[in-house]
Amino acid sequence: MKTDSPRWFTSSYSSNGGDCVEVATNLVASHGTVPVRDSKTSDGPALTLSAAAFSTFIAGVKRDA
Q1: DSSP state, residue 62
Q2: Is 1's pLDDT higher than 50?
Q3: pTM exceeds cut of 0.85
């Protein structure tokens, strides 16, 4: 079953301090994109990244962590 609605989640590493982002990885298969938004403004805009750009971002974060 495919859906066009993002299923938002925050990282399990989030400390729930309010400075988090939410991502919706369920759109990768159907759209090739990963929406990202500010968790404090869930009704606000989302930045839509290509799956490749999101993977590159995550790899960079892991490398610099």
Answers
A1: H
A2: no
A3: no
